[in-house]
Amino acid sequence: MLKALVIDPGKCTGCKQCEMACSFENEGVFNVSKSRIRVFDFHTEARFVPYTCTQCAEAWCQQACPVNAITTDRASGVKIVHENLCVGCKVCTIACPFGTINYNAATHKVAKCDLCQGNPACADACPTGAITFQDVEQTGFDKMKVWATQAAHAATHQGPNTPAAKA
Amino acid sequence: MGWARKILRVNLSNGTVKSEPLNMDWAQKYLGQRGLATKYLVEEIDPKTDPLGPGNKLIFATGPLTGTAASTGGRYSVITKGALTNAIACSNSGGYFGAELKFAGWDMIIFEGKAPKPVYITVVDDTCTIHDAAEIWGTSVWHTDEWIKKKHQDPMMHISAIGVAGEKQVLYSCIVNDLHRAAGRSGVGAVMGSKNIKAVAVRGTGGVKVKDGHEFLKATAAGKKVLQENAVTGAGLPSFGTQVLMNVINEAGAMPTRNHRQVQFEGAHAISAEAMATPRKTDGKPNLLTNQACFGCTIACGRISKIDEKHFTIQNKPQYWHASGGLEYEAAWALGSNTGVDDLDALTFVNFVCNEQGIDPISFGATVSAAMELYDLGLLTKEQTGGIELKFGSTEALVKCAELTGKAEGFGKELGLGSLRLCTKYGRPDLSMSVKGQEFPAYDSRGIQGMGLTYATSNRGACHLRSYTVSSEILGVPVKTDPLTTEGKPALVKAFQDATAAVDSTGLCVFTTFAWTLNDIAPQVDAACEGGWSPERMLETGERIWNMERVFNMRAGFTAKDDNLPPRLVKEPAQTGPAKGLVNGLDKMLPEYYQLRGWTTDGVPTNETLSRLAV
Amino acid sequence: MNYVILGAGPAGVTAAETIRQVDKTGSITLVSGDGEPPYSRMALPYFLHGDIKEQGTYLRQQPNHYDSLGITVTLARAGGVDSSNRVLHLSNGEALAYDKLLIATGASPVVPPIPGSNLEGVHTCWTLADGREIMKRAGKGQNVVLVGAGFIGSIVLEALHLMGSNLTVVEVAPRMVARMLDETAGGMLGRWCTAKGVKVLTSTKVERITGGSGIRGNELAVGLSNGDTLQAKLVVLAAGVRSNTGFLVGSGVAVRTGIVVNEYLETTVPHIYAAGDCCEGVDLSTGKPDMLAIQPVAVEHGRIAGLNMAGVRTRHRGSLNMNVLETMGLISSSFGLWQGVPGGDTARLVDEAGYKYLKLNFEGDQLVGAQCVGLTEHVGMLRGLIQTGVHLGEWKQRLMENPERLREAYIATALNSAHAGPVGPHVKTPVAKEAA
Predict the structure, then answer these.
(1) Which of residues 131-150 of B touch C (CB under 8 A)?
(2) B584 and B493 in a common domain
C-alpha cells in the first residue's frame, strides 16, 4: 500500500511550521515562499487549509513534460522532478489543474512536493496532526476529494484543541 | 546569522528611505528586537523629547529567531517613547507580520520625523515605498488591511496599521497587524499616528538563514517537545487560551473587579474560557470557533470567535458577522470584570472594536472602569459623558464607550486620555489604577504580591509582561512561591525581568516561558546566531537591557517616586478571597529590589552596575 | 494487430506507449521523420542557449526505452497512404502494412513568401538540425533579425538574446504574441523586451532579404516595410506553422487546416487516426475543432488515439487551449477563452510598471478564460477552475474585486464541487463541461 500525506484542515492552526520545514528541507533556508506546501488562511471563516501535491495517479505534470524530466517512482507513486533534465519550460505548471507544481525563477526549474524521499518534513513538523503521512487506499483525485470534503467542513468543526463544551 | 543584518531607515519628513547594515557590535550586546531596537532608540533620540513630536522615533524590530522554525519565532516589537507613559515603550506582537518583515530581508525599520501628510509604507523585499494614504486615513484597521491588499493586488501582504484611534492619538491606541494581533500597550499607535503613518505593508520572498541548520533543528525540536509536554503550553493554552486564567485568578482572589474595588468577580464564570466553548442559549453555537497560531507557534493559544448575529451589538452590522480574534484573558478581564460586565458576546464585540480601531483593551477597559467609579461617586455626570449612564455593569455603556473611543468622538475623546489624565481632570488621580500613566493588567497585587513590585518597577508602566511572577506565585512555574507574601519577591521579580528582557529580544513569544527557561531558549539562539549564547549570557543581556531602559527613563525625568502603586492597593485591604485583609507590601520589597539591582536607594543604577553590564 | 505510427513527436510517442499498455503483443512501428531519436521541439530553445545537450531534448531519456517496450523506431518520411490496401509508403521506398495507422506528423514552419528567404543564413527554428545551424551563426554581438513575434518567435527570442545576439524582432501584427496575449499583455511583453535591449518592430513587414554589407559578418540585409534596412548575420523565420499533410493527397483522408477527426480521433478513413499538431481536435472551450498546437494537447490526443486504436473506445471531450511563455524572465500564460465571451464579465489587475497582469474571463459565475503576466504561483489552478467549470458563487464577485484571490477561490470552490475533477487524458473521472 502506498503512503501519502493525509491533510486534515480541521486540525490546522495556521502556524506554518510545515512551510518552514519544507523550505528548510528543500532549499536550506527558512523561506515560506519557497515551500511546496502552503497553508491557506480563510480568516473570516476561522479555517486554515494546508495544500500540496497529492501525487495524483493522473500525473498531469509528468504527462505534460516534453523532456521526461518528471517520473513516477514505482515503489512510492511519487512524482519526481529530475532537475538535471528539467529545462524550465513551465508547461507542467499550467497543465497541473491543482496548481501544485511551481516554477522557481532562481533555479530556472520547477519544484513540487516529492514527499522528501519518503520522510516528509512537513508531517514531522506539524504540531497538531493536521498533516500526517499514512497508508492510504485512495489515490490521485480521490485523495483530493477526501481532502476537499474535509476542507469544506473544517469551518463547522471545532478547532483541534477546542475544549468540549460542558453541558 | 539569524539576523538579516540590514535595517531600513525611513525618514518621513524628507520622504527618503535608506538601507543600513545592522550594527553587529550592538547585536552582540543586545541580541535583537526589544534590546537592540531600544539601543538604537536611546542612541538616537533625546529622552525628553515629546513622544508625539517629530523628534521621537518609531522602530519595528524583529529578533534573530523571527522567521525561523523555532516555535513562536514570528514576533516583532514596536519600540518608541510611549505616548501614554512618556517612558520607554516596547510592545510585542505576533501574527505573521514580523516573520514577513524578516523574509523581506530586514531586522528592523526605523521611522523618523513626520510625514507632511498621511502616508502608508510598503516594503516588498528590497523595495520600500512611501505612498499617499489620503484614501484610507480616517478608516479602520480592517478596512485599511483590505484596501491595501486590493490596491497592491497581493493577498499575501501582511499589514500593520492604526485605526482612527491612532490617527487621533488616543493615548493607548495600538498598532494592529494581521487584523487582530497587536503591539498593544503604551500608546505606540498614537506615536505612529503622530508621524502620519497609517500602515506598513510587507511582503518578503527571501529566506532566513541560521548559523548551524542541523543544530538549530535539533535545538528547536527539543524546545517544541518541551512545549508539547508541558501542561500549560501543551494543553491549557491551546484548549482555553490565556482565558485558562479567568477562573484560576478569580479563585486566587486576584481578579481586579470594578476598578479594583473588589478582588473577585461574581460573573467570572460567564466570561471564562469554559463559557466561550459552551453553546449559547440564543443560537446554540459557541462563541469560540477554533484556536489559531501565530507564525511558527506550536502552542496556538489564539482565540477565533464569532458573535451571535442577533446579539444587540451587531444587529444589522454584517461587518461583524464573521470570525475574528476573540477574547484573551486580559481583554476579558479589562472589559468584563473590571467594568462589572458579564455579557460574553458584548465583550467579544468590544474586543472586535478594539482590534478594528486599534485601541488597547487593557487600558481602555481600565479607563472605562475608572470613569465608572467617578460616575458612581458623582464626580462625572451624565451631561459630561454625553448622555451615557456610565454605571458599573452596564453593557450598553461599555459598548457605547468603545465605539466612541475607537473613533475618538464625543466622550470617547476624554476616555482616550487614559485613566490617569481623566481622573486627574475630575480631581481624583488616585482612582487611576496605573503606574507611570499605564493601567494595570488583570492581576490584583494584593492577591499576588510579586505583581505589585512588577508593576511599580516596570520600565514601560504597569505591565504583566515585564516580569510575570504569576507563573511562580500561582502556577508554580518554575517553582511555586506564596502569592500572599513579599518574601523573596524582589529576587523573583529581578530574575523574571532580566530573563523576559532576553526572551523579548529573540523573536520568541514570552508565553513559551510557561514551559521554557533560558536553558531551553539559549541553545536555539546559539544554533542560529554567532557569539556563543549561553543561558548566563542571555540573562546578563537581559539585565543589560533592563538597566538601559531604566537609564533612559531616568533621563526622561522619572525618579524612584514613580516606582509606586495607587493608594488603593497599598491602603485598602482586599475584602474577599485568600488575600482578604491584605494590601500590597511594596514598601517592603522596593528597597531590597534596588539593592539586588545594584541601584542606589533612590533607584538610580550605580556606575559600577552600569560598567559591569557595559551599558 | 499491426500498429503503425507516423511521427515521433509527443503525440506519436504517447500513442505508441499507450497502445503497448493495452495491447501487450501487437506490433508497433514508430516512424520518425527527423532522422533523430524522438525529441521535443519545446526543448530546442534551451538547447540553443546551451542549458542542455542534444540528449536533453529527447522525449524519453532511457536509451533503450522503445526497445524495452517492443516499439520499432524507423527513420523515414511518409510518401503516401494507400488506404484501400492499408499500406503506408515511406520516402525510402519501403512500404508498411498496417491494421491501424496513426498520423502524428505534426507541423512545419511556414516559410513566408519573402524574396530572399532561401538565402544562406536564413533559417527556421524547428528542428534539431535548424538549432545546430542557428548556434553556428548567432552569438555574442552578432546581428540577428527574428521574423515573427508569435509564440514560437518569442521562445526563440529568449534563446537568441541569451546567446548575446544583437537582436531585432519584426512582427507584422500590432503586438507580440497576438494569438495568445491581448493588447495589455502583448504590450507589456513588447515594452519588457525593449527594456532588455531587444529592438521590437510591430506592425512591420519584412519585404525582402538580400546580400548584406559583409562587415562584421553581416552577410544579409533585411528590407522592411517602414523603409529601413537591417544588416544581419542571421535571419530566423518564425512566421507560423502549417500541418504536415501533403502526403495524404489521394488517401481519402479529409484535410481542412488540419486533418479532420471525430471525437475518437478517427479520420474520415477507417482505421486511420490522427493526433497532435497535424489534426483539428476539439477545443474544450468552444466544442469546435481547432488547431491547438501545444505539447499537452498532443499528449492528450496521443493517449486517446492510442486507446481507440487498441480497441478501448474512448471519447475525446476536448482539450483546453493554454500556453505558457517565458521571454527574458517575463512569464506569461493564457488559458481557454482569454478573449472573453459576449456578455461575460472580466476581472483585471494591471500593474504596468511592475509587469504584472491578471485577467479572468467569466461566463456567468464560471471561469472560462484567463491570462497572466508575471504570475506563476499555483498558476495551474486556472486550468483547474476553467476545466472543471466549477460555479464560483460568491467567489465570482470577490474575484471581480480582487482577481489575485484566485488561489483562495480555487481552494474554496473547485475542490468542493460535485463536478470537480479534471478531464482530459485520463478517462475515468467525471466531466463537468460537455463539449457543446
Answers:
(1) 149-150
(2) yes
In the numeric block, the cell 509604507 is attached to B121
Measured CA distances, B106 to B7, B129, B270, B524 (Å): 5, 14, 44, 20
Q: A13–B291: do the CB atoms touch at under 8 Å?
A: yes
pLDDT of residue C7: 95
Q: Tens digit of pLDDT for each residue in B275-314?
A: 999 999 999 999 999 999 999 999 999 999 999 999 999 9
Q: Which of residues 333-352 of B touch A (CB under 8 A)?
A: none
- Whether the pLDDT of residue B209 is over 80: the answer is yes
Contact A161 B291 (CB under 8 A): yes
B290 vs A24, A125, A159: nearest CB: A159
Asked if the C-beta of A127 comes within 8 angstroms of chain B's C-beta atoms, the answer is yes
What strands lie across the sheet with C206-211, from one edge to the other? Answer: C206-211, C220-224, C229-232
pLDDT band at A144 (very low <50, low <70, confident <90, very high): low
* Domain that includes residue B374, residue range: 257-432
C-alpha cell at C117: 528567404
Q: Which residue of C has its CA nearest to A40?
A: C408
- Cα separation values, B117 from B12, B60, B197, C125, C342, Å: 10, 21, 9, 57, 45
Compute the distance between CA of residue B411 and CA of residue B400 in angstroms, rounded to an integer.
10
Chain B residues touching A15 at Cβ < 8 A? 293-298, 300
- Which of the four CATH numbers 3.30.70, 3.30.390, 3.30.1300, 2.60.40 does domain C337-416 have? 3.30.390
Q: How many domains does chain B have?
A: 3
Altogether, the residues listed in chain C come to a count of 436
pTM: 0.91
The two domains C2-108+242-309 and C337-416 share their CATH topology (first three levels equal)? no
10 Å CB burial of residue C365 (0-12, 13-18, 19+) is middle
pLDDT mean across residues, chain C: 89
Q: Let me know whether B173 and B270 are in one domain.
A: no
The pLDDT assigned to B49 comes to: 98
Task: Write the pLDDT tens digit of every residue in C18-64.
Answer: 999 999 999 999 999 887 888 888 888 888 778 888 889 999 988 89
Mean pLDDT within B446-465:
98
Query: Chain-wide mean pLDDT for chain B?
Result: 97
* Ranges of residues in chain C whose predicted pLDDT is under 70: 415-436
Boundary residue ending a domain (B432, B449, B467): B432
Nearest alpha-carbon partner for B96 in A52, C290, A41, A35: A41
Residue A58 in contact with partner chain C when CB distance is under 8 A: yes
Last residue of a domain, one of B178, B203, B228: B203
Query: Residue B245 falls within a domain, yes or no?
Result: no
ipTM confidence: 0.94
Domain count, chain A: 1
User: Residue B153's pLDDT band (boundaries 50, 70, 90)?
Assistant: confident
pLDDT at C431: 28
* Whether C331 and A85 lie within 8 Å, measured CB to CB: no
Q: Is C299 on the interface with A (CB under 8 A)?
A: yes
Contact B324, B355 (CB under 8 A): yes
What are the angstrom distances between the C-alpha of B307 and each of B145, B243, B350?
21, 17, 11
Residue B193 has phi, psi (to 5 degrees) of -65, -40
- Which residues touch A105 (CB under 8 Å, ≥6 apart)? C329, C376
Q: C-alpha angle C162/C165/C169, rounded to 5°?
A: 95
Smallest Cβ–Cβ distance between C378 and the set A95, A102, A147 belongs to A102
Instruction: Supply the pLDDT for residue C130.
Output: 86
Write out the DSSP string of B390-416: --TT-HHHHHHHHHHHHTT-THHHHHT
Q: By the 8 A CB rule, do C259 and C275 touch? A: no
